[in-house]
């Protein structure tokens, strides 16, 4: 799913965007730094000094996050993988790369370089802090950046998917076992394990009165748990459709209707039925769009005689098209990118049918029971 972000510009051809949640975290960080973190360390600063240091530290932290993400993105570009965007948000940053790396080497280096950049920055700010040790404000800023970059580097190296360390683990297992699927499943299971560790640690902090940090850590654990669970599901799904084509899953259970047909006619001639939930609209002998029965039934009754199926349909010209012989997994990816229920299937330029999410679910159920029969499971 692609979320809208505010464009900030491009660095080396990579668009940088900010999610709205980023403003919240910058304000929150500035506030905690200015009212709690710095006042605990330095007692005699003025209010302006606390707030300025808080604000610049928060910005510098996100500049560090950005460099971490640029580490991932530049490595991806090195392996000829396109980077769609680097997004800064509530939890740091995210590099959206176009596709999963297809070699173990790229799969290892792309996640590894980010945490290495963070650890390098921690070392760099450590050195700079010696240089500015007589000036209190810059020294405090450097110290903060040393600890935050250290945390950023080490946290991301935790070996559980979807963290960078989990991806490194996956690539390493993939390289040695030559089995990508098992490598993904193992690293995602580790991800689940560490997610529970984070949730438990968050709970522990919460009980001991550390409300904000406790909630934060537990919430990160919960996000990791979801992401690792989703990865396992995706991998199982990929396995189930492996070697199958769009044509095998495509349902042919639709009704052909002439484009000029009024909605009211569909009801008068009793063309709507439970078995034909989908209608394909034809103009001449060409299929031009499709309609779901739900949409027709929801349309206000008194206006049904004024509108034709063509006016209500979803035109094929607006939709991505699937080829009949394409593999089913690629079709599922198209469904994931487009929040849509059905897509036209073609053979060259010729319309063959509609593949719906329901068709894929039915196909999966059937292939699962076929598999169970083969394995002698009940
Ligand atoms: Zn990273």
Low-pLDDT windows of residues: none
Output the number of helix runs: 13
Ions, cofactors, ligands: which are bound? zinc ion
Topology, number of strands: 11
Amino- and carboxy-terminal Cα gap:
37 Å
Oligomer: single chain
Give the overall pLDDT as a whole number.
Answer: 86
Give the overall shape, derived from the CA principal axes.
elongated
Rg calc: 27 Å
Report the helical percentage: 55-70%
What's the SSE pattern? Answer: EEHHEEHHHHHHEHEEHHEEHEEH
The percent range for strand residues is 15-25%
Largest sheet: 4 strands, mixed
Structural class: alpha/beta
Strand order of the largest sheet: 1-2-3-4
Secondary-structure topology with pairs:
Blueprint: E1 6-11, E2 14-18, H1 21-41, H2 47-78, E3 83-89, E4 92-97, H3 104-131, H4 136-156, H5 164-177, H6 180-207, H7 211-241, H8 246-249, E5 254-258, H9 263-268, E6 278-283, E7 286-292, H10 293-298, H11 309-312, E8 314-315, E9 322-323, H12 328-337, E10 342-347, E11 350-356, H13 357-375
Helix pairs in contact: 1-2, 2-3, 2-4, 3-4, 3-5, 5-6, 6-7
Bound molecules: zinc ion.
Report on the structure:
With about 375 residues, the chain is of the alpha/beta class. It has 13 helices and 11 strands. About 60% of the residues lie in helices and about 15% in strands. The protein has a 4-stranded mixed sheet with strand order 1-2-3-4. Strands 5-6-7-8 form a 4-stranded mixed sheet. Strands 9-10-11 form a 3-stranded mixed sheet. The structure holds zinc ion (ZN). Zinc ion binds near residues 68 and 156.
């Amino acid at each position: 799913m692609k979320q809208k972000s505010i464009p900030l510009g491009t660095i080396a051809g990579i668009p940088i965007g900010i999610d709205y949640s980023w403003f919240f975290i910058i304000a929150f960080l500035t506030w905690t730094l200015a009212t709690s973190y710095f006042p605990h360390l330095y007692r005699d600063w003025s209010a302006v000094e606390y707030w300025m240091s808080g604000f610049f530290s928060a910005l510098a932290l996100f500049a560090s996050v950005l460099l971490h993400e640029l580490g991932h993105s530049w490595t991806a570009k090195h392996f000829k993988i396109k980077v769609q965007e680097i997004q800064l948000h509530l939890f740091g940053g995210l590099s959206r790369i176009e596709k999963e790396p297809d070699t173990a080497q790229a799969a290892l280096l792309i996640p590894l370089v980010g945490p290495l950049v963070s650890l390098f920055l921690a070392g760099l700010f450590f050195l700079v802090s010696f240089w500015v040790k007589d000036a209190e404000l810059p020294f405090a800023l450097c110290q903060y950046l040393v600890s935050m970059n250290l945390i950023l580097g080490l946290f991301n190296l935790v070996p559980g998917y979807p963290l960078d360390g989990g991806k490194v683990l996956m690539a390493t297992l993939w390289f040695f076992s030559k089995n990508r699927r098992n490598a993904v499943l193992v690293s995602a299971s580790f991800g689940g394990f560490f997610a529970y560790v984070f949730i438990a640690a968050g709970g522990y902090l919460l009980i001991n009165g550390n409300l904000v940090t406790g909630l934060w850590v537990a919430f990160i654990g919960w996000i990791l748990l979801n992401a690792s669970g989703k990865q396992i599901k995706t991998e199982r799904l990929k396995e189930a459709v492996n070697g199958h084509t769009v044509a095998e899953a495509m349902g042919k259970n639709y009704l052909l209707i002439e484009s000029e047909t009024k909605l009211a006619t569909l009801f008068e001639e009793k063309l709507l039925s439970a078995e034909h939930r989908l209608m394909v609209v034809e103009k001449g002998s060409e299929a031009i769009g499709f309609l779901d029965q739900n949409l027709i039934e929801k349309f206000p009754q008194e206006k049904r005689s004024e509108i034709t199926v063509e006016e209500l349909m979803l035109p094929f010209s607006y939709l991505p098209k699937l080829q009949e012989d394409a593999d089913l997994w690629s079709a599922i990816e198209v469904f994931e990118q487009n929040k849509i229920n059905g897509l036209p299937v073609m053979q060259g330029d010729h319309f063959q049918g509609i593949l719906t999410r329901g068709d894929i679910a039915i196909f999966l159920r059937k292939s699962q029971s076929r598999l169970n029969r083969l394995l002698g499971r009940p």
